[in-house]
Amino acid sequence: MGSRGNPFDSQGPALSRCEILFLPTSDPPIPGEIVYNLATWYDRDQVKRRSEPRFEFNGAEARELPLLSQQWVYDNLPLVIRDLSVNQISPQRRYGPPQFRHPAPIAAQTVWAWLRREEERAIARCRARLRTKFSGSQVTLIDRVLGVLTDPELGDPVNDSYRASIYPDLAKHVELAVEKGVPLHFVVPGLPFKSQCELRTLGKAAIPDLGEIALLLRLNSVSQVLKDFHDPGADWIIASDGQLFAQMLGLSNSVPSDYHDSLREYRNNLGLIDTIHIIDINNIMALLDRDGLPRFQHILGEIRSFLDVLRSLDDVRNRLDALSKNMLWHLPIQKLTAKSLRLTTDSRMSLAWQILQGDWGALSTRARKYLEELRWELAIGYAAVQLTVNYLGVFARALPEAIRATTRAKPQQVAIPKLGELLPWNGTAFLDEVRDNNRALRIVPIYKLFDHQDVGQVRMINQSDPLFFLAQRQS
């Protein structure tokens, strides 16, 4: 399957049917609650926008928004900041900028062929595990779906830990999809833009690497195995929050859009346009605003004000403190060390290591004050955005038929497959040598490759940015 022509976007890559639904339009607001019944609002043969839902859904009925107060923010903050651990790095690592080999550029067809072959093997292994797991027993369709979602390769075994909280909502969605004969739909926030911390990645913010591409293929592989049990298969809707965080991290608003265009081009070339959809969460919220809900920016401002007051409480401050230290990992080294003057490239890298480890002893009073203000601004900004999305019930209102998925395991949400220790947009794609002369793709922070011997920085023909890093074979 290749890319198809798209009357809505003659300049960029073709959009999927779901992406077209969420394009900004001048249509009048849809009466009542915005409900995208994806099963009936678009079909497989023709894009079709409809003003009335075709059937009701238990979770889609209109509801009153809760009272927005300090208490609501306090109660819900733990839901958006769950992890209180702080990223740590080894003080023994070499500080200087890395030196990588530059092997000959590789043809795109070679990369795609390798990726497809690896995904076909992963699918075969998953199917074999499922046959063994369900052999000789009577199992429901929902059990089989959970079998895929908890698979150690195509799914995430952590979903098994949350089975009790995931099962009821998943069962409701599966039963509806079977009744209507339509694909399952999963919605997951993600793919904002490439991280700009040079200790994690070396590429440009608008340029994805092999990690993001591999994730799209992996999600498609999940859909292919689900198709064994549910013939319409499954669609993945990736709701990008890049526009919400770009300016906060010093990036222009065009960066997320350019990043998504690159991803769509890769997706289309790999024939994934029918199962993978990348939409901007801003477009969802614009439609919700038109439906009479309070404006996002107004709610965001209120929640920020509440957080500024609540940070005086020890438990809130501790939660925001952990978040703020981790947020520094999203900044380029130049911004981290902006108030430290007369630094060489090597010393700037060394100082960034110390800052990210929490060792600020060598910083001037001016630099410490700058970083304190910066990290708290980032933490409160990030928390306020997440709380605003939760408060407005963005996904439940706009995509009621979609199963809520997540990049970080939590109750009532399906965790998507992991490809390494970092999310693809926060790390670097690394092809390592493993047993039987096969390569394994892992997403790692780039600093873990600084001490590797013979690592190659590989790009595709006619591209200047690295697509992945490669452990050179020993002769």
Describe the protein in words.
- By secondary structure, this protein is an alpha/beta fold.
- It has one domain (17-21, 31-471).
- It is built from 17 helices and nine strands.
- It has helices at 17-21, 38-41, 70-80, 108-133, 141-149, 158-161, 163-180, 210-226, 242-245, 254-269, 281-290, 296-310, 314-327, 333-336, 345-356, 365-392, 394-398, and strands at residues 184-189, 234-240, 276-280, 403-406, 414-415, 428-433, 439-444, 455-458, 468-471.
- The strands form two sheets. A five-stranded parallel β-sheet has the order 3-2-1-4-5. Strands 7-6-9-8 form a four-stranded mixed β-sheet.
- Strand 1, helix 8 (210-226) and strand 2 form a beta-alpha-beta unit.
- Helix 4 runs parallel beside helix 8 (210-226), helix 12 (296-310) crosses helix 16 (365-392) and helix 13 packs across helix 16 (365-392).
- The longest helix has 28 residues, at 365-392.
- The chain is globular, with a radius of gyration of 23 Å.
- The protein starts with 16 loop residues before the first helix and ends with a strand.
Mean pLDDT: 82
Largest sheet, spatial ordering of strands? 3-2-1-4-5
What's the total helix number? 17
Major sheet summary line: 5 strands, parallel
Uncertain segments:
1-10, 28-62
Total beta strands: 9
Provide the descriptors you would attach to this structure in a database record.
9 strands; disordered N terminus; 475 residues; 17 helices; alpha/beta; 5-stranded parallel sheet; 9% strand; 4-stranded mixed sheet; single chain; globular
